[in-house]
Every structure is written in structure tokens, then in C-alpha cells.
Amino acid sequence: MTRIHKIAAGSILVGLLVLGLKFLAYWLTGSIALYSDALESIVNVVTAVAALFAVWTSSKPADADHPYGHGKIEYFSAVLVGALIVVAALLIFREAYNGFRHPVPINPAPLGLLMNALAGVVNGVWCWRLLRWGRELRSPALVADGRHLLTDIVSSVGVLLGVVLVALTGWAVLDPALAAFVAVTVLWSGWQLLRDSIGGLMDVALPDAELDRIREIIALTADGALEAHDLRTRQAGPQTFVEFHLVVPGDMTVETAHAICDRVERAIRRELGQPHITIHVEPEEKAKHSGIVIS
């Protein structure tokens, strides 16, 4: 089991622990807001399971049926998670609506509030690590999992403070109002996740900063070539694809052109990890005089 697999499996264990703590908090207090918070944690567990499946599949090497690898499965996983988050938000809205119609006094049991606070701390620590690891490993599934946990933390803090306020004021209607707040937060998180995941499925290019760095590397390391043009990039889960045309003098030997390509590839890999790089070598009459000028 690789590092990324262990991280994804750890998310499932953390999700189950937090789920148990939050349902215990709801059972002790009877709060609709805490119940909505616990419902969101069910989605956290499903998210973690989907992330483990996605990173496990995406790590498989390319084969005859999938010559570009299996990286895009992480985006499908993230889309599924986004849809589940939206469903969870609708379920919470339903509970909030019933609470508005029939407000029920809550029991602000200190132990229940403590359990919810402990769940928030566990989520906070794991969320911080998950986002860091996900960006480091270029895993959309882990980042999606971490971003959802971040939303869960924000809503949990709001719910916990709100339940304390309900206990102090006696305003039972605040409880379903807080549940509705959680639903709006969850819905926004689901929308952002769906938007970003669909962008990945549509072969969105690398960020501008990384594109500029690739252009700079080509300009500095392709000594002997004339120019580079038609730079294209895309991200497929943890895999990055870089493609461009490299124009060389017409009388340059294949061996020399190949050496230039090797040098450029090594430099790009030092910057981006292990991207898939395709360089199309062209003679000087193919120059467009509008691409990357070689230093």
C-alpha cells in the first residue's frame, strides 16, 4: 500500500470516528442542528471511501485500454462526492423545515457539546493534513475530501456556538435556523467541488504560474533550437501532460535534436515531478515566430 493509499484509508477511519462522536452529541442533546451536522459526517465517510477507490484506481499503470493512465477517475470520484454533498444539504434543509414547523426544546448536555467539539478538533487536524498531502501528491480526490472537511469544520463551529446560544436564550427556533445555515454551507461546498471536478474532466490547463514556469524552462534549456510553440497542458488526477512543438535548424541531426529534447524534459521534470511530456520536433520552415524564443 502506497503513501497516498494509506492517507485515503486513514480518512475513512477518521470519518467513522467523527461520525460516532457527532451522533453521540445529537443523542445527548436532541438538537436538530447537531443532527444536521452528523448527517454531513455521513457524507464525509462516503467521500473518504470514494477517495480511496479513486486513488487506488488512478495509481494503476497505463495499459492497452487506457494508454494515458487512469488518473481521471479521481475527477469522477470528486463529481460523485459533490453530488452526495448536494443531497446531504437537501436532507438537512428538510430537517430544518420540520424544526421551524415544530420547534423542540433541546437539552444542552455538556457531554454532548464536548463530543461535538472533540469531533471538530479531530476534523480540523485531519483536514489540514489532507489538504497539504493532496496538493503535494497532486490528488484531486484527496483535495476534494479535505475541502469538504473544511466546510464541515466551519459549519460545526457555527452549530456548536449556536446551540450554546439556544441554551442561554431559550429560543428554540434558533436550532433549525442553524441547521439551515449548515445546509447552505454544505450546498456551496458541493457546488464548488462539482465545478472544479468538471473542469478536470474537460482537460483544464495548468495554472498560469506553472505555464509561465514551463515556458521559462524551455527558453533557458533548449539551447540550439530556434523556438517552441503550441504549448498545451492538462491535468488528469495526479498526472500532468505537457506537449509542445520545438523548431530546430533544418540541418540539425536527429541525435542533436533528441539531446535537446532530453535536456528540456529533465528540466521540466525537476520542476513538475513526473509529467508526461511530448515534444514534436520540426524544421525551421515550420517556425511561427510567435511562440517561445530560445535564449
UniProtKB/TrEMBL annotation:
Residue ranges occupied by any Cation efflux protein cytoplasmic domain in the UniProt entry: 206-284
GO molecular function of the protein, one example? ferrous iron transmembrane transporter activity
Q: Which domain of life is it from?
A: Bacteria
Boundaries of every Cation efflux protein transmembrane domain copy: 11-202
Cellular component aspect of the GO annotation: plasma membrane
Alphabetical list of InterPro entries matching this protein: Cation_efflux, Cation_efflux_CTD, Cation_efflux_CTD_sf, Cation_efflux_TM, Cation_efflux_TMD_sf, CDF_Transporter
Q: How does it sit in the membrane?
A: Multi-pass membrane protein
Tell me, what is an example of a GO biological process annotation in this record?
intracellular zinc ion homeostasis
Q: Which UniProt keywords apply?
A: Cell membrane, Membrane, Transmembrane, Transmembrane helix, Transport
Cell compartments where the protein resides? Cell membrane
Q: Which organism is it from?
A: Pontibaca methylaminivorans
TM spans, by residue?
Answer: 7-28, 34-55, 75-97, 109-128, 149-171
Its name, as the record gives it, is Protein p34
The UniProt entry's sequence similarity note says: Belongs to the cation diffusion facilitator (CDF) transporter (TC 2.A.4) family.
Q: Does the keyword Protein biosynthesis apply?
A: no
